[in-house]
Amino acid sequence: MHGLLNRRTFLSTAAGPLAGCGATEHRSRTHAQRPPNIVFIMADDLGYGELGCYGQEKIQTPRIDQMAAEGMRFSDAYSGCSVCAPARSVLMTGMHMGHTSVRSNPGGVPILDSDITVAELLQEQGYATGCFGKWGLGDIGTDGVPWKQGFDEFVGYLHQAHAHYYYPLYIFDNERRLPLDGNEGDGRGTYSHDVIASRALDFIERQKDRPFFCYVPFTIPHSEYTAPDDDIYAEYEGRFEELTLRENPNRPGRLIRPEEPHATLAAMITRLDRDVGRILDGIAELGLDEDTIVFFTSDNGAAAALWTDYFLSSGRLRGAKRTFYEGGIRVPCPCPISHERGSC
Fold first, then answer.
1. Rounded to an integer, what distance in angstroms lies between the CA atom of residue 16 and that of residue 100?
2. Whose CA is closest to 78, among 243, 297, 315?
3. For residue 107, which of 72, 76, 287, 303 sits 20 to 30 Å off, Cα-Cα?
4. Contact (Cβ atoms closer than 8 angstroms) between residue 110 and residue 86
5. What are phi and psi of 129, to 5 degrees?
6. pLDDT per residue over 81-108, tens digit each?
7. 269 has pLDDT over 50
């Protein structure tokens, strides 16, 4: 790279300056020299227009809206691709679609052993690294699994098709299957998203005394469209005009929610918002809010805009997921901001 820093050099030289960026004089020398913690939260198929801070009026997202109000709201943030796996490959490797290893989206295509991920670079700098959610860049038996790509811990889905279901028999805890209680047959005992959110919080608490990179690629609000029958769902039940659809027209046989698909999508997004808030609160309770950089975004544009425009899921943008119009690649990106560090 002529005249430019490569990613490895940038991260090895930037960790120190980032830690002291905007630090006040009263901070101790040891505290100021600690590299910043990094939390990167990524929703799955969340559209540009599905958050209140980007114009949504029907779905409640108070914690993410608060992030935007108190921090920064990027209006022109873009994903690396308009579909799942390539977008994640771009994010992890830093290579654009012409160079990154995963350039298609059939499911199960792994990144390569020779690929250098951001997790590997941070691991070299002494960071604890954890991934919680949907990986989508390599299944069991490949070199693409997260524990071979720089992550000390992984809990979630490896194959993206497995991640289409919220009440599976198991998810993965590194290479070990983690059974989810009550999901046998048609059981709805354990909603996988709740387990993933709790494990991300647990990682942050356990790693509070050292720099950490917590990558949280949540699965919601990707299909299948289903949510627990709890207080969050009750907020929306019976409130909206509903579809008569019985399946997602883009995935025949995949049920949305026969009774109230709009209410279900809204409940999934509000659940996402709740757990973003839980992570922010957990960081603050540990006294790490001035030492942690938090990012929030989506992997690509809204899938919901493909089967309904009820929520204006792409805002006023043309297109949605799978297209390279703005609605397919422009993504929401509100970030809280540390007033002391001066960075988001």
1. 28
2. 297
3. 76
4. no
5. -125, 130
6. 999 999 999 999 999 999 999 999 998 8
7. yes
Contact 249, 230 (CB under 8 A): no
Going by C-alpha positions, the residue among 141, 73, 77 that lies closest to residue 336 is 73
**Cross-strand bridge partners of residue 40:** 215, 295
* DSSP states along 199-245: HHHHHHHHTTTS-EEEEEE--TTSSS----SSHHHHHHTTTS-----
Amino acid at 46: L
Residue 210 one-letter amino acid:
R
The SS3 call for residue 72 is: strand
**Does residue 207 register a pLDDT over 80?**
yes
pLDDT at 202 over 60: yes
In the chain, count of helices (H) and strands (E)? 10, 9
Partner residues linked to 39 by β-bridges: 214, 294
Q: Is 44 helix (H, G, I), strand (E, B) or coil?
A: coil
Any idea of the CA torsion for 298, 320, 239, 219, to the nearest 10 degrees? -30
The Cα 182–Cα 29 span in angstroms is: 51
Q: Please state, in angstroms and rounded to a whole number, the distance separating the CA atoms of residues 108 and 97.
A: 17
292 within 8 A of 37, measured Cβ to Cβ: yes
The enclosing H or E element of 293 equals strand 292-298
pLDDT in tens, 18-57: 433 333 333 334 455 789 999 999 999 999 999 999 999 9
DSSP 100: S
What percentage of the chain has pLDDT greater than the value 90? Answer: 78
Which tokens is 183 given? 């999901």
Q: Would you say residue 174 has pLDDT above 50? A: yes
pLDDT top residue among 2 and 254: 254
Q: What angle do CA 89, 157, 112 make, to 5 degrees?
A: 35
